[in-house]
Every structure is written in structure tokens, then in C-alpha cells.
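Lab meeting, item 3. Inverse folding demo.
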């Protein structure tokens, strides 16, 4: 109405709940404690919110539907942003926080950061979706992370004095191969716990020569626990010279994977590996299942180069033995030769037919002692 001036919205310096929306008006009126940009929100947290978010004065940010540029979404104690904030979206199909040519969420030594019901999208650049430095802890619930580079990374030179912890619930962490660092989740420092979640490397091969493609890579002081989840590498017409690895531990990294589906699927001639361990690494993978496919490459369930693997597996029975490479004693299969003729075989890479080294092995028949 002409001549009527709506009252300007206000931001309380001590607000316990604020909103991030594409429009801070409703029914023609301004909404208090509302921001339309991530940059303005973080500026208020750092420079105006008093007291700063803490264990006794946490902050909740309710995020509406829409796509928000993540410029400024950085947590750093040096600027007074120490954590204790919950970012709650309107659903991972409704709320997107994104960045082009940069890191979407950049964290340093922050505590009790919670992300829920939203999507984090990194595109058109090599920054990655989430970079976490310096310990601390976080919770991620009903989150989609989509990246064309690292979805999650912890730089070794930025580990904290105390190992941090990150909990994932019902979330999808996905990277597509556009740039050379073809990894989804790579950690050097902290503990990561996944429940009912997905870690997927989808090699679409817009980048023609994927570099060391691994879905979950844990090394140095880091540790990962993957329960009731799935880890996948998918290759679509990719460079066949690139071996594909689902899970890898090395240089002190520890991975526990239980009740987890591990898929490495190539429609070309890539070598595919489910579990890879290098010196100092440990993988404990009881209760996991495997779907490993390639047109003509080598299928390896366990590739152990000086580490420790605790991953016994019983393949489904049948008249054809699995064509795989594994660790001696780790794989078993029941062969049904017909009628009541049933044999248990155990994988042993040293098992070959003495009369014909080119025929027999690597399965040893525990009943007859023959190499099959």
C-alpha cells in the first residue's frame, strides 16, 4: 500500500535459532533473525553473535529450500567460530549448499558441528566438498555429498593434537571422476563412523586418466568404521589401465567394515580390487559381501602388501570356482560336483598341479589335497 513502510527485520545478537532462506519475507513482512546468504550468516556468527556458540549456548541454523553459495562457510577458532552449531536443511532434495572452484565446507579444529537434511555440492573445480583439519567432531545425518573431486579430505599436515570423530547416519557420499584425484573419502587424522550410509566413486571418465581411484582410503593416524553400509566403485567406459579399489588401508590406517556391501563394477577391462592393504595398514571386514565384475581384468578380493587383513569369506557354492585373487586361507568355497560329491576348497595361491603347473590352483581341496 502506498505510504506504508514495513518495519525492517532485526537480528538478535544472542539468537539461539536463526534462518537461512532465499527470501526473508513472508506475507509481505520481514522475518526476524533471517539471512539470505551464507556469507552474511557467518559474518554475524563471527562478529555479532554474543555469546559465541558454545556447549551452553549452541546455535541452530534452519535452512529453507533453495541453493545457497557456500562462500564463507568456514569454521576456524582463530576467527571466534569454534563450533556448537547445527545446520538443518529442509531435505537433501530441497536444500543445497554449493560452491564452484572452491571448498564448500572448510573446517579447522571445530567441535559439535551438525549437518542434517541437506545436500553439499562441489562442482567445476578442484576444491572438494568438505575439508576437515585439526581434530574436533561432527555429525552428518540424511546428507548427500556430491563432488567432482574429493568429497571428504583430511590433510596429513593439518591433523590435530587429539584425534577427532565424525559420525555419518543415512547419508550418501559420492564423487564423480572429473579431476585427477579420484577419491571419495580420504582420511589421515580422525575417526569416521558410518551407519546405513553409502560411499561411491562413480568414474564417468570425463577425466581421461583417473589417478589412483579409491572409494575409501584411510591412512596414517585415521580409522574408519563402516557398518550396515555400502562402498562402491563404478566404472563407465574408463581407462582400463586404472586399477579400481573399493577400500584401502595403509601407513597405520585402520578400517573396520562389517555388514557392508562392497561393489567394484567395471564395464571395461579394469583390474578391480575390493580390499587393499599396504605396509602398516589393517582391514577387519567380517560379515561383508562382495560384487566384483570386469570384462577381462583381474578380480582381486584381497591385495595384501605388508599389512594385516582379517576378512574370511565363504563364497556361494556351485560347480564353478570363483576366478579371483586373494590372500592364502582367507577364502573358502563349497564345490558341488554333482550328486553327493561335495568338496570344501580353500584359497592358496601356492597351490598348483604338480603334474601340470598350468592346470590346477589356486584352490586346494581339503578332502583330496588336490589343487583345483
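The presenter then showed the designed sequence:
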Amino acid at each position: 500500500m502506498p505510504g506504508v513502510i514495513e518495519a525492517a527485520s532485526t537480528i538478535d545478537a544472542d539468537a539461539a535459532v536463526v534462518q537461512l532462506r532465499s527470501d526473508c519475507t513472508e506475507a509481505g513482512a520481514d522475518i526476524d533473525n533471517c539471512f539470505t546468504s551464507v556469507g552474511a550468516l557467518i559474518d554475524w556468527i563471527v562478529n555479532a553473535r554474543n555469546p559465541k556458540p558454545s556447549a551452553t549456548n549452541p546455535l541452530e541454523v534452519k535452512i529453507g529450500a533453495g541453493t545457497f553459495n557456500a562462500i564463507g562457510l568456514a569454521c576456524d577458532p582463530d576467527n571466534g567460530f569454534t563450533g556448537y552449531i547445527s545446520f538443518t536443511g529442509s531435505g537433501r532434495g530441497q536444500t543445497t549448499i554449493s560452491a564452484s572452484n572452491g571448498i564448500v565446507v572448510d573446517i579447522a579444529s571445530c567441535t559439535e558441528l551438525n549437518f542434517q537434511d541437506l545436500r553439499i555440492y562441489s562442482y567445476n573445480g578442484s576444491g572438494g566438498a568438505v575439508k576437515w583439519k585439526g581434530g574436533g567432531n561432527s555429525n552428518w545425518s540424511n546428507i548427500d555429498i556430491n563432488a567432482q573431486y574429493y568429497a571428504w579430505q583430511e590433510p596429513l599436515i593439518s591433523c590435530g593434537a587429539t584425534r577427532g570423530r565424525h559420525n555419518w547416519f543415512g547419508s550418501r557420499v559420492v564423487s564423480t571422476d572429473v579431476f585427477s584425484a579420484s577419491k571419495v573419502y580420504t582420511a589421515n587424522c580422525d575417526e569416521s563412523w558410518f551407519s546405513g550410509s553409502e560411499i561411491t566413486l562413480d568414474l564417468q571418465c570425463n577425466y581421461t586418466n583417473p589417478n589412483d581411484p579409491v572409494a575409501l582410503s584411510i591412512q596414517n593416524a585415521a580409522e574408519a568404521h563402516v557398518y550396515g553400509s555400502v562402498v562402491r566403485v563404478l566404472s563407465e567406459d574408463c581407462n582400463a589401465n586404472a586399477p579400481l579399489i573399493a577400500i584401502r588401508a595403509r601407513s597405520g590406517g585402520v578400517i573396520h567394515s562389517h555388514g557392508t556391501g562392497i561393489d567394484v563394477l567395471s564395464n571395461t577391462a579394469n583390474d578391480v580390487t575390493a580390499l587393499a592393504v599396504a605396509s602398516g595398514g589393517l582391514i577387519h571386514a567380517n560379515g561383508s559381501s562382495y560384487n566384483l565384475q570386469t570384462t577381462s581384468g583381474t578380480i582381486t578380493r584381497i591385495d595384501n602388501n605388508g599389512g594385516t587383513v582379517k576378512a574370511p569369506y565363504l563364497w556361494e557354492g556351485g560347480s564353478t570356482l570363483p576366478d579371483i585373487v586373494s590372500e592364502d586361507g582367507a577364502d573358502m568355497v563349497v564345490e558341488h560336483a554333482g550328486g553327493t560329491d561335495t568338496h570344501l576348497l580353500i584359497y592358496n595361491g601356492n597351490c598348483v598341479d604338480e603334474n601340470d603347473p598350468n592346470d590346477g590352483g589356486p584352490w586346494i581341496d581339503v578332502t583330496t589335497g588336490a589343487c583345483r
